[in-house]
Amino acid sequence: MHSTNLLLEEPIRMASILEPSKTSFFPAMTKIVGTLGPKSRSVDTISSCLKAGMSVARFDFSWGDAAYHQETLENLKLAIKSTKKLCAVMLDTVGPELQVVNKSETPISLEENGTVVLTPHQGQEASSTLLPINFDGLAKALTPGATIFVGQYLFTGSETTSVWLEVSEVKGDDVVCIIKNTATLAGSLFTLHCSQIHIDLPTLSDEDKDVIKKWGAPNKIDFLSLSYTRHAEDVRQAREFLSKLGDLSQTQIFAKIENVEGLNHFDEILAEADGIILSRGNLGIDLPPEKVFLFQKSALHKCNMAGKPAVVTRVVDSMTDNLRPTRAEATDVANAVLDGSDAILLGAETLRGLYPVETISTVGRICAEAEKVFNQDLYYKRTVKYVGEPMTHLESIASSAVRAAIKVKASVIICFTSSGRAARLIAKYRPSMPVLSVVIPRLKTNQLKWSFTGAFEARQSLIVRGLFPMLADPRHPAESTSATNESVLKVALDHGKASGVIKSHDRVVVCQKVGDSSVVKIIELDD
Predict the structure, then answer these.
(1) Model pTM?
(2) For every residue of 228-287, which 3-state class applies, written as one string?
(3) pLDDT single digits (tens) 492-513
(4) Domain around 75
(5) The domain spanning residue 105 has which CATH number?
(6) Nearest of 479, 482, 483, 504 to residue 493 by alpha carbon
(7) Residue 16 placed within a domain
């Protein structure tokens, strides 16, 4: 564990806590991933979500078919066009997810101390004594005394809507369980989680591959959320599969850590993946409750030092049905920011919650408040020490740009980039001011037609804390023969002024390539 990332006045003026927050063009430096579903798929609602602060839209294929999600995506495109706000697309795979098959969708009542049988025979009707599941090998994986959790998909944690089972005996392919708490399972989809048990199913199933090929490839998805990542090899296999699908070779893979198996191989997975999603819902079942915070802090620190985006899930579950989060949830969001999270992922809260827009807005405000007391100076020193010497050329430039921006109290850092790597490295040092990433498109050809790169790189920065992209005119190169590159810089400055980030007499730090050299310069603006 490391020293705190919290910076407060000593002693803090308690009255200052009640001072109203200043409105900003960027609601928060921390990004928000929203899952689009029944309550959040209309053009108007998605537009409101974008204005509230959502920068990545997640499409969860655990439910709904490709046609349904395509309709939602078309609505997202219309919302982006009307709001003029960029938004990335994340496809979330199903993976080796165990599910209870309840075809009739009739609520199932389970009584404490009763027994219920889990069977792989999916043709049977689900009832209070029999739960058909989608996996043939469960009986082989379990032994008496094992713990099983069953709950509504993206459940809210209520004991009355989820149930704990304890295996009493295994009969052939069936598993007989004792019910540990009274509950009613309502809805069409329940997930089943066995604590610390290896499930012998592929991480990327044939169904997942089919969805990626038929839905992900035509829509040029920005991120693939790889559910139940357990080994680095899972990421390598997914990347090899994506590399054969044209533009998806640029798609970033975010490994979703959901169980102890993924936790045990975390370092190797982090080295292979483009980012990490801490799926705290399933981790909270697999880990003892008192260990969850420790894993979160350790995993986020590792991601921060590697310069890879880290996303935290399951923060404001109660907002699925309520307009305000609980005090514990509000504190949890802030702690995720102080621990180093790049983004907060909202699941049920936006997918089927009653207040998707209000949830995004509330989480954004909490993140913004936490960012004000984030100890950037301590974080910067720790990161520099971790990286060590000699630094790479690009890392040295990035860290110097951040240090210069802090020393001169710059209002923004502007970074010209083609691949997005330089901008991500600057963001790695968590500057207290926004980083405006000006993505310069590159011209490429397959000998049949011309096309520009840059759109992927711009959207993929929408999940990185503090990074705000804009696409530059392709006629202006990222590299310049002079130290000015005036036209594209003027466009970036005008964008900053229009958004209220840059004002007269502000100082701005600019990071760009001039010939073969990288340059960091400080500009002081006139009236």
Answers:
(1) 0.90
(2) CCCCHHHHHHHHHHHHCCHHHHHCEEEEEECCHHHHHCHHHHHHHCCEEEECHHHHHHHC
(3) 888 788 777 888 888 999 988 7
(4) 28-95+202-373
(5) 2.40.33.10
(6) 504
(7) no
